[in-house]
Amino acid sequence: MDTQTILIDYITKELSVGRAKQIRPSDNLLETGVLDSLGLMQLVIFIEEKLGLKVPDEDVVIENFSSVDALTGYLERMKKASS
Predict the structure, then answer these.
(1) pLDDT value at position 18?
(2) Is the pLDDT confidence value at 77 over 70?
(3) Can you tell me the distance from the alpha carbon of 14 to that of 16, in angstroms, rounded to the nearest whole number?
(4) What domains, with CATH codes, occur in the chain?
């Protein structure tokens, strides 16, 4: 599975229980209520444990986590920077 599919699967199954049934990559996760502060921290832990990428505290900002598209782009930039 690609990164975007992995993220959508995790968010749908673990973070949006009782909220959104289908998440599109462009959906704003914060405005739709899918992602709150606790969910954001759970998502960071998931990324670090399952994807093996360390997310610095200063990178946990709305611009990087507003949507699956934004998050995927951020993670791809992180991967390139660490190569």
Answers:
(1) 66
(2) yes
(3) 6
(4) 3-82 (1.10.1200.10)
